Amino acid sequence: MDKDPIAFILYISLSWVLLSVYSNFYQVYRYTRPVNILALIIKQSVFFLIIVFAFFGIYYELKIYPKPVIQYVLLSVILISAAKFTVYYLLQNYRASFGGNYRNTVIFGYNKKTVALEQFFNKNPEYGYLHKKTFNFKQDDFNLTRCFEYVLEKGIDEIYCSISELSNSQIAEVVDFADNNLKIVKFIPDSKEIYSKKLRYDYYDYIPILTLRTIPLEDSVNTIVKRSFDIFFSGLVIVFILSWLTPIIAILIKLESKGPVFFKQSRNGFNYKEFDCYKFRSMTPNKNAHLYQATRDDQRVTKVGRFIRKTSIDELPQFFNVLFGDMSVVGPRPHMVSHTNMYAKRIDKFMVRHFVKPGITGLAQISGYRGEVESDKDIIGRVKYDIFYIENWSLLLDLKIIFQTFMNAVKGEDKAY
Where does the Bacterial sugar transferase domain lie (predicted)? Predict the structure, then answer.
């Protein structure tokens, strides 16, 4: 082991990460049962043991016998298992004893399956579900609109629907409501077909639950990978580009017009929370900057501003937003607060974009939907690409978008004004 410890550490660390992603080792949710966690640990341990043996098969001159290898793997697995179960039970006790980390739920439909789910919520506070109400669709005074009002009024996080109790039009209505109001909707399945989508199938105790929309960035491993990449990439840009470029841009901006070097604007981010988005100032100071986008031949844009907008240099300060955690390098572009409120009312599923952090660039931007929104067709197209990105995220997709963004900036884009 003394011969090449760095190679061993790198090999084992990388192998563990790749194996964890493959085996879903860190996909443990509040409703995951201990026996399922144990199964994940056993599966991970077996493959990890094979991987460690493979290393010493390559470096056979180290003359390591099987016993110390097994002891090393066993100790590693015991320590990781202890940490995993400790966190799992600490969270459960925190929910049950202190009422924290809760998700407010409602159920649409009243039958044996929904009653069983309601009992599960009420009898297992350690899972962190606070059940508010079960709506009986068979009652004469039932009104789906009133259900939606209740969900908004009580701050409900997750809606559970019995598929057998809803018509196709009602299902569509519930899905649209959930998408447009940042609510999670899940289904209690039966024999009825609902959508030709890739649904996730989970168990709450022994009750099957369908999740309509799978968001890869809800998985803890993917979240860590994306956040680590964001910190690394934004750090490189800040140190190697912004450190010397900022003084140059600042002098040019100040020479042409009076006003601050940076422009700060409130925008909506993850879970619809507002944050201050930073850019290099590209316009003369004006009262309408927070209300109206720049248009072609906009008189507010300065000469320096026209150049930095054309080359997307004006967006570079947003890497500080990335470093602070308000944004990501890649994601749906954030809109001005006034525009977000307007589009949320007019454009179906617009709010789905806020299930993830906004980005400096995104799939919609490299697909021809950057810059000014000239018609509803532009924003509808942007939402379509943003939802595809949210449901199909991967680090490889992020790298592809970053590369294409750079190429577009070099070539110049017609709508970059």
Answer: 226-410
